[in-house]
Amino acid sequence: MDSTLLGALIGGGFAITGSVCTAVAAYFTNKYGEHAKTRLKKKEDLYISLISLRESISGFSRTFRSSSINSSKIIERNNDFSTSRKNVRMLIELYFLKLEPSSKRLNAKLTKFKNEFIVENTTSYKNGVLDKNNISGEEASKSALAEVNKIIAAVSKVKI
């Protein structure tokens, strides 16, 4: 075999091997990069949903103490609470399984908050006996807020 032909075949072989290696490396780099971008976006979404949930819990307390309380404000707060709660639960269950035990504790505290704070005070308001100086379920509210704050702290420590 001619040495020129042999040199060309060897050079061509290295060129093809180099191209394949570059393509494989680019594929895995992009795949990891896209995965990291998605996880970062979902972490941000979870953080925003937790902040929204915390605000809706605090907002309920302000609503029931307000002198201008009305049914539409209660419904609006309840919708905000329910939406934020669903978003937090969905994001944790789909993207952050390591937070699942915290999510179960949070869900239990939010259920207690809903039953002891929202339902009780809404019923009192509807019956015309809401005492704005003695709101029912304050302990459930504080407990739910504390659990939300714990998960916010845990989310900030989640590695992407």
The total count of strands amounts to: 0
CATH second-level architecture:
Up-down Bundle
In whole angstroms, the N-to-C terminal distance is 55 Å
How many helices?
4
In terms of DSSP E residues, the strand content is: under 5%
Domains, number: 1
CATH topology: Four Helix Bundle (Hemerythrin (Met), subunit A)
Largest sheet: none
C-alpha Rg (nearest Å):
27 Å
Derived structural class = mainly alpha
Which regions are unreliable across 5 or more consecutive residues at pLDDT < 50? none
SSE string, helix = H, strand = E?
A: HHHH
- What is the percent of helical residues? over 70%
Q: Tell me the name of the CATH class.
A: Mainly Alpha
Please give a structural write-up.
- The chain is an all-alpha fold and 160 residues long.
- The mean pLDDT is 89.
- 84% of the residues lie in helices and 0% in strands.
Features:
Four Helix Bundle (Hemerythrin (Met), subunit A); 84% helix; 0% strand; 160 residues; 4 helices
In short:
By secondary structure, the protein is an all-alpha fold. The protein has one domain: Four Helix Bundle (Hemerythrin (Met), subunit A).
How would the blueprint of this fold be written?
Layout: H1 3-65, H2 71-95, H3 100-126, H4 138-157
Helix pairs in contact: 1-2, 1-4, 2-3, 3-4
